[in-house]
Amino acid sequence: LASRDFHPDDTIIEVKGVKIGGEHLAIMGGPCAVESPEQIDEIAKLVKASGAQILRGGAFKPRTGPYSFQGIGVEGLKMMAEAGERHGLLTITEVMTPEYVDVCAEYADILQVGTRNMQNFDLLRKLGTCGRPVLLKRGFSATYDEFLNAAEYILAGGNRDVMLCERGIRTFETYTRNTLDLSAIPVLQGLSHLPVISDPSHGTGRRELVEPMAKASVAAGANGLIIEMHTDPDNSMTGDGVQSLFPDQFDNLLRDLEKLAPLV
Ligand code: PEP
Ligand code: MN
């Protein structure tokens, strides 16, 4: 079902009037984690003012160590839903387990599967019937074939609204957090009809690389970008402040991007 052979035309996913896929660029911006009502509201305001359509933010965080901040949970979902509503933005949030799919689907417009869960097949099956579009991140060591097979689990369950997200893979290089695989964008678009989104934040792990890799992703044909932005990145509650753009950088980037492709 993910293959172009099955579905020759590009899939365009429509979420409350916002079309993801095709010629327009979908921009998802926001913090790594929802931290407080004030934080998410302030960031939502800035994301909207810059011309993006979708607010990102994690309420459930898949942290490498069990003692790190794990996200604020359902309260965070509610805070983000309110901020999205107030500022006229769609919302996207990560869901980590099948048990939380329903509550995440209740509060968010789009559900995100993180890189660490790309092959959590019980989660993928559950997302097949969740009634929300899904942004599936590529596992950091997954081949294209494994990635498309993971998408297939969601599609096979009856959910045809799946976006593929390249977020960097693990290589021998350590200067960057991951290596953003730009080839993935045209390769996946050739093999599949599903929209392809690039994540230059996790793909590089370094703020100064987000802008060039965002532009490179759009030049390579990406249908959208998911970008971390924070009003106070140095004090963010996850380690991802180092890769988060400041609001003015986010705004400048969008001004440049809209010269390359119209924003949705
Ligand atoms: C995130 O989007 O904050 C995140 C945890 O992403 P990934 O699963 O790509 O590491
Ligand atoms: Mn993050």
From TrEMBL:
Alphabetical keyword list: Transferase
Span of domain DAHP synthetase I/KDSA: 12-259
Protein name, entry field: 3-deoxy-7-phosphoheptulonate synthase
Shown stretch of the complete protein: 71 to 334 of 347
Gene Ontology molecular function terms on file: 3-deoxy-7-phosphoheptulonate synthase activity; aldehyde-lyase activity
Organism lineage: Bacteria, Bacillati, Bacillota, Bacilli, Bacillales
Organism: Paenibacillus apii
Listed EC numbers: 2.5.1.54
Alphabetical GO biological process terms: aromatic amino acid family biosynthetic process
